[in-house]
Amino acid sequence: xxxxxxxxxxxxxxxxxxxxxxxxxxxxxxxxxxxxxxxxxxxxxxxxxxxxxxxxxxxxxxxxxxxxxxxxxxxxxxxxx
Length: 81
Description:
This protein has four helices and three strands; from the N terminus they run βααβαβα. Helix content is about 45%, strand content about 15%. By secondary structure, it is an alpha/beta fold. The chain has a three-stranded parallel beta sheet, sandwiched between helices. The two termini are about 20 Å apart.
Protein backbone atom coordinates (compact mmCIF):
# COMPACT_ATOMS: atom_id res chain seq x y z
CA UNK A 1 0.00 0.00 0.00
CA UNK A 2 1.28 3.45 -0.95
CA UNK A 3 1.92 5.60 2.15
CA UNK A 4 3.50 8.93 1.21
CA UNK A 5 5.14 11.11 3.84
CA UNK A 6 4.82 14.19 1.63
CA UNK A 7 2.20 15.01 -1.02
CA UNK A 8 2.60 18.06 -3.26
CA UNK A 9 -0.48 18.83 -5.34
CA UNK A 10 -1.86 21.55 -7.55
CA UNK A 11 -5.19 23.15 -6.67
CA UNK A 12 -6.38 23.89 -10.22
CA UNK A 13 -6.45 20.38 -11.63
CA UNK A 14 -9.16 19.38 -14.12
CA UNK A 15 -11.83 17.01 -12.91
CA UNK A 16 -10.97 16.70 -9.22
CA UNK A 17 -9.32 19.85 -7.89
CA UNK A 18 -6.58 19.79 -5.27
CA UNK A 19 -8.93 20.59 -2.42
CA UNK A 20 -11.14 17.60 -3.24
CA UNK A 21 -8.06 15.40 -3.60
CA UNK A 22 -6.76 16.53 -0.20
CA UNK A 23 -10.12 15.84 1.46
CA UNK A 24 -10.26 12.40 -0.13
CA UNK A 25 -6.66 11.69 0.91
CA UNK A 26 -7.30 12.74 4.52
CA UNK A 27 -9.94 10.05 5.05
CA UNK A 28 -7.41 7.28 4.34
CA UNK A 29 -5.03 5.94 6.97
CA UNK A 30 -1.98 6.94 4.93
CA UNK A 31 -3.47 10.33 4.10
CA UNK A 32 -4.09 11.26 7.71
CA UNK A 33 -0.36 11.02 8.35
CA UNK A 34 0.90 12.64 5.14
CA UNK A 35 2.16 16.22 5.03
CA UNK A 36 0.11 17.79 2.22
CA UNK A 37 1.31 20.86 0.31
CA UNK A 38 -0.53 22.92 -2.29
CA UNK A 39 1.72 24.26 -5.04
CA UNK A 40 -0.51 26.62 -6.98
CA UNK A 41 -0.86 29.89 -8.81
CA UNK A 42 -3.72 30.91 -6.51
CA UNK A 43 -2.52 32.83 -3.48
CA UNK A 44 -5.29 34.99 -2.06
CA UNK A 45 -6.24 34.81 1.61
CA UNK A 46 -9.44 32.97 0.61
CA UNK A 47 -7.42 30.44 -1.41
CA UNK A 48 -5.24 29.77 1.62
CA UNK A 49 -8.29 29.38 3.89
CA UNK A 50 -9.82 26.87 1.47
CA UNK A 51 -6.57 24.88 1.45
CA UNK A 52 -6.45 24.80 5.24
CA UNK A 53 -10.10 23.71 5.40
CA UNK A 54 -9.34 20.87 2.96
CA UNK A 55 -6.58 19.54 5.23
CA UNK A 56 -3.62 21.00 3.37
CA UNK A 57 -0.70 21.75 5.68
CA UNK A 58 1.14 24.34 3.56
CA UNK A 59 0.10 26.55 0.64
CA UNK A 60 2.91 27.63 -1.72
CA UNK A 61 2.31 30.05 -4.59
CA UNK A 62 4.14 29.73 -7.92
CA UNK A 63 6.84 30.60 -8.68
CA UNK A 64 8.21 28.96 -5.55
CA UNK A 65 11.54 29.81 -4.00
CA UNK A 66 13.61 26.59 -3.79
CA UNK A 67 14.36 27.42 -0.15
CA UNK A 68 10.62 27.20 0.60
CA UNK A 69 10.56 23.70 -0.91
CA UNK A 70 13.57 22.72 1.22
CA UNK A 71 11.77 24.06 4.31
CA UNK A 72 8.67 22.03 3.45
CA UNK A 73 10.70 18.85 2.98
CA UNK A 74 12.33 19.39 6.37
CA UNK A 75 8.95 20.02 8.04
CA UNK A 76 7.57 16.82 6.52
CA UNK A 77 10.67 14.89 7.54
CA UNK A 78 10.38 16.05 11.16
CA UNK A 79 6.68 15.30 11.30
CA UNK A 80 7.01 11.72 10.03
CA UNK A 81 9.90 10.66 12.28
